[in-house]
């Protein structure tokens, strides 16, 4: 009888059902494990079947065996990467050998008595792309296990992994220190994406499948469900590609064409189909294949190949949502949810119930990503760039999201929780103080009136106007509406949003920034060619001028929404005076279009430019007379000045915004605006941090637009500041040859009793 014929005869679903029944028994854990390896060995006609599980030390311990010496159970341990078992765990992939002892990685352990066995087949027990154990079958004869047998053992290993991780198989009091998931307190350092502090229980963006949803009751039904879900997935991708938007939309070679290629990938589809044929539900098949891809791609050194994991991850998540017929927001979350994800799509964060979401932790992303900006708008603490985060956490783990220190504390000790609660109490007291200051005018001790505005981009931001006491919206990022949509927002949809914003603001001013996409903000439904350096490529106003129909549609919506009242519009990333002239001509053309049709126009129309490109520093004398106002976008201005991507952790800390070159540039902008009588504001992140805002005031800027969470702290600073002596000291600091004068500015502020 050929090896493997047993499982072929009995059927994989029958084997999996036997394993599940053995695991679910009431006997001690060791007896259940012994029964499981016996069932697998008999079904696969193998003379040896062994299960190794990872200890907290990282060692792989033999937990059960059929065929090897029983005395070796709990005695044999292999270090990570040691022996063939360690190699399976390290690679997180199956290994099939006809003559195992001849393999260079083979490690002989005499206590196991495995001398006679040559054929070896091992598969990792994968959990979140990480091997938590290894399942092995062995035979005396030298032979290769066929593809069906490799597929079978992978399916069995998946069921074992999920059952072990769920706690159904290993009772805590019987088998301790088994690293089905990390369980010790850990601290991870990342990057601060959104300030704040929160603790709560982990909610994984990719929810794990419970063991009871792993095995199919009816294979044909699951095959049909998978086939229909794949058809729906491909239809979704095709819809995004086509978009029905004429020249304004089309296939993006870099994003959606690759996306569709993966959706049609025969290997991916075949793996899913084989997993279902082996007795898994459609959901379990997707989860298993996702785990395998995750483990395989994690071994790749090529950054491009590793990036492709995101495409497979997102396809798998979409497919699971199609199978479940739900969205993230449909999940039942705890009241203190800390959302954990590798990354988030444009609309994912907004789909979760806001009142239950206390914090956000990401493996990837950047402070400029839409997820981070939305987190700041919702005033949710967010820490990103937490490498290895997802595989170190399980659903329901207690975790701290520290947006002040840019750290995540996993499974914190009680004393750490107490310290965090004390800090949160202090934050609550400060928040109460900011609330008391909400309606107090922002006037310094020496009588300087400061206009304090807020940044916005979502409808939810409008609530912050009244809550913070901001005097208006100094920067409304219109691209958010485009980023959370699967297709280009129609003219009426854009108009409705802009009208809603103006209605909510009432008499308070609102400055709309036209579409700022490109670079790190990609709209998959827009046809954008691949660029070697997108941050310096066709983005913001460049895209708008290259696609005038796109920009004119947005301008038409803004003019319609602002009919009969004041409308303020500014163009981003202006690098030359000619670009501003061209953009303003499009505004004039849209005004003429509306007049010819008898449509109402804004009572007051003000057009401005953002100073973000260093080239304008030497052409302000030509630009300022053409503008009604300007706004300094310090985020981009400084990253372009220092040629350092602020979203890249390798270089983002190479410069300090409070350095003489940066401060001199800002001082020059302010001086030129005073000379020409041009209103100027600062709307970058600097305006929302008290120390940096103090420096801006000393340079003469009296109009600041801050994130909602920064309005209160900055107002408190303003009310405590005396700018007279501060300005005199700042003049000398501008002449410094130091790389940063942050410490000097902070010392000055504390000397003057400025509240930071």
Structure report:
By secondary structure, this protein is α/β, with parallel strands linked by helices. Helices cover 42% and strands 15% of the residues. The protein contains 25 helices and 22 strands. The strands form 3 sheets. It has an 8-stranded mixed β-sheet with strand order 7-14-13-9-10-11-12-8. Strands 21-20-19-18-17-16-15-22 form an 8-stranded parallel β-sheet.
Q: What is the topological layout?
A:
Elements: H1 5-10, H2 12-23, H3 29-43, E1 48-54, E2 60-66, E3 77-78, H4 83-91, E4 95-97, E5 119-127, E6 130-139, H5 147-166, E7 186-189, E8 191-194, E9 197-204, H6 219-242, H7 253-263, H8 266-277, H9 282-298, H10 303-324, E10 337-341, E11 357-362, H11 370-377, E12 382-384, E13 398-402, E14 407-410, H12 414-436, E15 451-456, H13 462-468, E16 473-477, H14 479-483, H15 491-505, E17 510-513, H16 541-546, H17 548-561, E18 566-571, H18 577-596, E19 604-611, H19 620-623, E20 629-632, H20 634-641, H21 660-676, E21 680-682, H22 690-698, E22 703-706, H23 708-720, H24 723-734, H25 742-751
Parallel strand pairs: 9-10, 10-11, 11-12, 15-16, 15-22, 16-17, 17-18, 18-19, 19-20, 20-21
Antiparallel strand pairs: 1-2, 1-6, 2-3, 4-5, 5-6, 7-14, 8-12, 9-13, 13-14
Helix pairs in contact: 2-3, 2-5, 6-7, 6-8, 6-10, 8-9, 9-10, 12-23, 15-17, 17-18, 22-23, 24-25
Q: How far from one another are the termini?
A: 80 Å
Task: Name the average pLDDT.
Answer: 84
Largest sheet: 8 strands, mixed
Count of distinct strands: 22
Q: What is the percentage of strand-forming residues?
A: 15-25%
Structural class category: alpha/beta
What is the topology, as strand order, of the major beta sheet? 7-14-13-9-10-11-12-8
Computed Rg: 30 Å
Low-confidence stretches: 1-10, 243-256
Helical percentage = 40-55%
Report the principal-axis shape.
elongated
Q: Report the total helices.
A: 25
């Amino acid at each position: 009888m050929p090896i493997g014929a047993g499982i072929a005869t009995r059927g994989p679903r029958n084997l999996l059902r036997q394993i599940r029944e053995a695991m679910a028994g009431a006997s001690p854990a060791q007896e259940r494990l012994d029964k499981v390896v016996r069932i697998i060995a008999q079904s696969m006609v193998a003379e040896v079947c062994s299960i190794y599980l990872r200890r907290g030390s990282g060692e792989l311990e033999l937990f059960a065996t059929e065929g090897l010496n029983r005395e070796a159970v709990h005695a044999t341990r292999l270090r990570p990467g040691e022996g063939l078992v360690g190699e399976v765990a390290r690679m997180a992939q199956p290994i099939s050998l006809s003559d195992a002892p001849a393999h260079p990685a083979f490690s002989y352990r005499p206590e196991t008595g495995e001398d006679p066995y040559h054929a070896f087949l091992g598969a990792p027990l994968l959990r979140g792309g990480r091997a938590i154990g290894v399942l092995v079958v062995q035979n005396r004869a030298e032979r290769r296990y066929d593809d069906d047998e490799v597929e079978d053992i992978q399916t069995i290993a998946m069921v074992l992994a999920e059952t072990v991780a769920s706690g159904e198989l290993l009772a805590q009091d019987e088998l301790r220190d088994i690293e089905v998931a990390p369980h010790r307190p850990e601290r991870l350092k990342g990057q601060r994406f959104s300030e704040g502090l929160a603790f709560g229980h982990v909610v994984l963006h990719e929810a794990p499948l419970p063991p009871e949803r792993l095995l199919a009751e009816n294979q044909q039904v699951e095959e049909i469900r998978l086939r229909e879900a794949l058809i729906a997935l491909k239809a979704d991708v095709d819809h995004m590609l086509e978009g029905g938007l004429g020249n304004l939309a089309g296939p993006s070679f870099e994003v959606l064409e690759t996306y569709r290629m993966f959706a049609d990938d025969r290997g991916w589809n075949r793996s899913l189909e084989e997993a279902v044929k082996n007795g898994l539900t459609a959901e379990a098949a997707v989860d298993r294949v996702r785990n395998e891809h995750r483990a395989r791609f994690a071994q790749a050194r090529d950054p491009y190949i590793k990036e492709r994991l995101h495409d497979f991850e997102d396809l798998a998540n979409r497919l699971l949502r199609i199978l479940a017929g739900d969205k993230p927001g449909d999940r039942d979350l705890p009241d203190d949810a800390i959302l954990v994800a590798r990354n988030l799509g444009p609309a994912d964060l907004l789909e979760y119930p806001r009142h239950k979401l206390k914090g956000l932790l990401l493996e990837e992303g950047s402070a400029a990503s839409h997820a981070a900006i939305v987190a700041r708008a919702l005033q949710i603490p967010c820490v990103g760039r937490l490498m290895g985060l997802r595989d170190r956490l399980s659903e329901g783990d207690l975790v701290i999201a520290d947006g002040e220190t840019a750290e995540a504390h996993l499974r914190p000790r009680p004393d750490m929780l107490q310290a965090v609660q004390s800090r949160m109490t202090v934050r609550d007291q400060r928040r109460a103080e900011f609330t008391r200051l909400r309606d107090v005018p922002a006037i310094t001790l020496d009588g300087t009136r400061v206009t304090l505005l807020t940044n916005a981009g979502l409808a939810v931001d409008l609530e912050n106007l009244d809550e913070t006491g901001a005097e208006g919206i100094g920067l409304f990022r219109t691209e958010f509406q485009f980023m959370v949509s699967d297709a280009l927002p129609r003219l009426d949809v854009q108009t409705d949003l802009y009208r809603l914003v103006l209605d909510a603001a009432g008499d308070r001013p609102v400055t709309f920034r036209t579409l700022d996409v490109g670079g790190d903000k990609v709209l998959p439904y827009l046809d954008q060619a691949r660029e070697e350096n997108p941050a310096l490529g066709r983005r913001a106003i460049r895209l708008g001028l290259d696609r005038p129909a796109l920009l004119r549609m947005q301008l038409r919506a803004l003019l319609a929404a602002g009919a009969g009242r004041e409308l303020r519009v500014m163009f981003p990333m202006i690098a030359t005076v000619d670009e501003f002239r061209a953009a303003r001509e499009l505004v004039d053309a849209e005004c003429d279009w509306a007049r010819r049709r008898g449509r109402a126009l804004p009572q007051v129309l003000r057009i401005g430019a953002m100073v973000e490109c260093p080239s304008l520093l030497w052409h302000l004398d030509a630009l300022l007379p053409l503008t009604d106002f300007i706004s300094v976008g310090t985020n981009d201005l400084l990253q372009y000045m220092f040629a350092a991507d602020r979203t890249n952790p390798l270089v983002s800390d190479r410069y300090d915004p409070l350095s003489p070159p940066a401060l001199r540039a800002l001082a020059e902008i302010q001086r030129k605006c005073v000379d020409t009588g041009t209103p100027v504001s600062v709307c970058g992140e600097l305006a929302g941090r008290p120390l940096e805002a103090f420096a801006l005031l000393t340079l003469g800027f009296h109009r600041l637009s801050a994130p909602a969470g920064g309005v209160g702290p900055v107002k408190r600073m303003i009310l405590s500041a005396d700018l007279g002596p501060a300005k005199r000291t700042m003049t000398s600091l501008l002449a410094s040859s130091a790389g940063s004068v942050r410490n000097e500015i902070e010392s000055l502020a504390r000397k003057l009793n400025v509240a930071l």
